[in-house]
């Protein structure tokens, strides 16, 4: 088909589609007779979306998986595409079909010209949740789809003309190669037998065809590996898989058979395939989509070998308050997490998101291994584990926004690649601030998973319907007034001496995410560091979190109706300094006057060395906001003091006149707080409940909320 030759020229990139950045071939299959050719690609797209939306979503590009299925025998080309990025929140599917008349199959696109081609296109969009921007995403998707329809015909005609210019004006039809009858007959019989096993829900037939249909090895398998010879035996199902209806059993066979025919690499065990099927209510097409995405992800990041090749850093072993602890009454492995005792910010600052995510992945891989072990021990299928989360000690400090953002991203990865592994989640001693955290996190958790949550406030877990209904008395941890000594680390504050710089986190060898949270900057006497934030809509919320690593600084927020001039890299005194210790950027021009060209929207905040500061500001006007960190000396410099070249040069020579900060900022529409802003402000006194190892002070104003603490 000439259309297929033209279509394939769009890859790996297409100059006619600027948003199409790149593509990689994930899977490819060709039938022995050459009639069927299936190519699956992973495509990288630069969607035309608002910069603010991309920043909130945490991505610059989105990825789609596209499968092209060419059937030369029937003269059809089917193109299927679905989104890989944010597939838990938005489901986008598109289907295109090129069909040429095939009279020998009784198909006529046009009665007078059998070489005419029929083109059909359809798409669907299902938005579950997207940070409160559901309507915006819908508009972007509709705009993109309309644009694709208009350009699709132009692009295919462009490449057809290109083929004509190269002298290719005719593509001969496919003809079947000569195959020995015995081989063809044998292959046909096998396909018919396999189809019969899938269509006729008869246990005797299924048992007889199971091994061949799934490629099971002959003879008994090694314990814990491979698949038994009597794969569809009722005993095997009861022992390893659990109760399955004939339809569910058929779905399992079909999905495994498809994987064996198309997937290059390790085929998951039946138990894991069933998890994906259950996660999509045994819809084979949907289960196949998410499983293919997961298999590609596992291969890309070598997740299958994480337990053998990766050891958690000592910081995690000492301060991550979680670990495995026996099993529940149903035989599920029990994981205990003392979240209220964990220094989330300290772990992120000491390790970065990469190490935390890798550690969570290793926990899930260990959970899968323990499920297999418990299946052998208890003689019945154990496919999930129970998680016990103790929230005693949870307070406003745990609602640190970069930490919540990291948590949401981890949840997204786990939900996509370990479906139906959480059997039950027991949340104990939920404090007053828990509803705020739940409001932020719950929209990103699958509905099926949410139904497995049991939440207990205070000591309610000790009463009827509490912990004893799910865990034997003799293994209830000691910190929950139980009799069993729990070896889970107690957590505690991570020493600031273990914190790493943004540069160190950026240079990680193994990366699952592409960006770090924090940036570092140097502040000199006479040379503040400033960042520019443009606000389009009033009532947006600017949030920040920074640590004063060296020296004392003054933090200011300014507003201007006009944009400052961009920093000049070659002008030391005017705007920009790059030093070994970090970057220094100055935006406020020295000819600007406070009160005329720009205004102060918050009172200056003096921050001492070693302090951590979090805060937010609800903007009143659109325009340009400047966050400034300025060197603090006694007496404090006036706000109108402006940097001079000689001051900057002198400050570079005097180490005592240098400060260093690490900061994180984010801009979010106020509606995306989903009501949590009011809760945060009303619960501000929760900072007084910090552990005795911290001291706190706060400053609250009508349009902002700032908190800080110093570790002793």
The major pleated sheet works out as: 6 strands, antiparallel
Number of domains: 4
Strand order, main sheet: write it out: 1-2-3-4-5-6
- Structural class assignment: alpha+beta
Helix coverage percent: 25-40%
Look at the structure and name the CATH superfamily of the largest domain. Answer: CRAL-TRIO lipid binding domain
In CATH, the architecture of the largest domain is 3-Layer(aba) Sandwich
Q: Tell me the number of helical segments per DSSP (H or I, 4 or more residues long).
A: 18
Ends apart, CA distance between termini: 73 Å
Strand tally is 24
Shape category: flat
β-sheet strand percentage: 25-35%
Kindly report the CATH topology of the largest domain: Phosphatidylinositol Transfer Protein Sec14p
- What value does the average pLDDT take? 74
Poorly predicted regions are 103-111, 180-231, 509-515, 569-581, 636-642, 648-655, 672-712
Radius of gyration: 30 Å
> Quick one: CATH class of the largest domain?
Alpha Beta
GO molecular function, one term: RIG-I binding
Domain CRAL-TRIO: 312-488
GO biological process, one term: innate immune response
Protein name: SEC14-like protein 1
């Amino acid at each position: 088909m000439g259309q297929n030759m033209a279509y394939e020229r769009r890859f790996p990139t297409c100059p006619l589609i600027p948003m199409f950045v790149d593509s990689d071939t994930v899977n490819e299959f060709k039938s022995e007779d050459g009639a069927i050719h299936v190519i699956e690609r992973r495509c990288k797209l630069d969607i035309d979306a608002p910069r603010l939306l991309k920043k909130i979503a945490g991505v610059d590009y989105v990825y789609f998986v596209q499968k092209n299925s060419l059937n030369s025998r029937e003269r059809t080309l089917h193109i299927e595409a679905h989104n890989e990025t944010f597939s838990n929140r938005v489901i986008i599917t598109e289907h295109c079909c090129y069909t040429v008349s095939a009279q020998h199959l009784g198909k006529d696109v046009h009665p007078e010209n059998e070489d005419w081609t029929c083109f059909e296109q359809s798409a669907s969009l299902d938005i579950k949740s997207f940070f409160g921007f559901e309507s915006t995403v819908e508009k972007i998707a509709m705009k993109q789809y309309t644009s694709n329809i208009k350009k699709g015909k132009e692009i295919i005609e462009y490449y057809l003309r290109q083929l004509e210019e190269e002298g290719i004006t005719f593509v001969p039809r496919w003809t079947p190669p000569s195959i020995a009858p015995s081989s063809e007959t044998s292959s046909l019989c096998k396909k018919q037998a396999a189809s019969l096993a899938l269509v006729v829900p008869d246990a005797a037939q299924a048992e007889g065809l199971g091994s061949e249909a799934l490629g099971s090895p002959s003879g008994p398998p090694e314990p814990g590996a491979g698949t038994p010879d009597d794969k569809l035996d009722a005993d095997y199902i009861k022992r390893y898989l659990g109760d399955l209806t004939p339809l569910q059993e058929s779905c399992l066979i079909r999905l495994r058979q498809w994987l064996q025919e198309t997937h290059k690499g390790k085929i998951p065990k039946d138990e894991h395939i069933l998890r994906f099927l259950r996660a999509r209510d045994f819809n084979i097409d949907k289960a196949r989509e998410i499983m293919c995405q997961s298999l590609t992800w596992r291969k890309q990041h070598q997740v299958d070998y994480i337990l053998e090749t990766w050891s958690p850093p000592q910081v995690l072993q000492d301060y991550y308050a979680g670990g495995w602890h026996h099993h529940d009454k149903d035989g599920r492995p029990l994981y205990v997490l003392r979240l209220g005792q964990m220094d989330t910010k300290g772990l992120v600052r000491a390790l970065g998101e990469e190490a935390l995510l890798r550690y969570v992945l290793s926990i899930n891989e260990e959970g899968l291994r323990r499920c297999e072990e418990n299946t052998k021990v208890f003689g019945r299928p154990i496919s999930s584990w129970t998680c016990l989360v103790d929230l005693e000690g949870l307070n406003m400090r745990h609602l640190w926004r970069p930490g919540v953002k990291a948590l949401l991203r981890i949840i997204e990865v786990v939900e996509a690649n370990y479906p139906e592994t959480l059997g039950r989640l027991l949340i104990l001693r939920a404090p007053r601030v828990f509803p705020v955290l739940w409001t932020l996190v719950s929209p990103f958790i699958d509905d099926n998973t949410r139904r497995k949550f049991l939440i207990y406030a205070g000591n309610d877990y000790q009463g009827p319907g509490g912990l004893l209904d799910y865990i034997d008395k003799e293994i209830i941890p000691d910190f929950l007034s139980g009799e069993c000594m729990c070896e889970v680390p107690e957590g505690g504050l991570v020493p600031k001496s273990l914190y790493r710089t943004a540069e160190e986190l950026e240079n990680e060898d193994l990366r699952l995410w592409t960006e770090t949270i924090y940036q570092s900057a140097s502040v000199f006497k006479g040379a503040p560091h400033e960042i520019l934030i443009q606000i389009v809509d009033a009532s947006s919320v600017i949030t920040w979190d920074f640590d004063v690593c060296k020296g004392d600084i003054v933090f200011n927020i300014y507003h201007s109706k006009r944009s400052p001039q961009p920093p000049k890299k070659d002008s030391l005194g005017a705007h920009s300094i790059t030093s070994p210790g970090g970057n220094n950027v100055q935006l406020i021009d020295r000819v600007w006057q406070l009160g005329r060209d720009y205004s102060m929207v918050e009172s200056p905040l003096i921050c001492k060395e070693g302090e951590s500061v979090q805060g937010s500001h609800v903007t009143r006007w659109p325009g340009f906001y400047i966050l400034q960190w300025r060197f603090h000396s006694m007496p404090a410099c006036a706000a109108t003091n402006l940097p001079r070249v000689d001051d900057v040069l002198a400050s570079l020579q005097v180490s005592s006149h240098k400060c260093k900060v690490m900061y994180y900022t984010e801009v979010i529409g106020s509606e995306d707080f989903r009501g949590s802003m009011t809760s945060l402000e009303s619960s501000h006194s929760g900072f007084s409940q910090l552990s005795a190892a911290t001291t706190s002070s706060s400053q609250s104003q009508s349009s902002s909320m700032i908190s800080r603490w110093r570790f002793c």
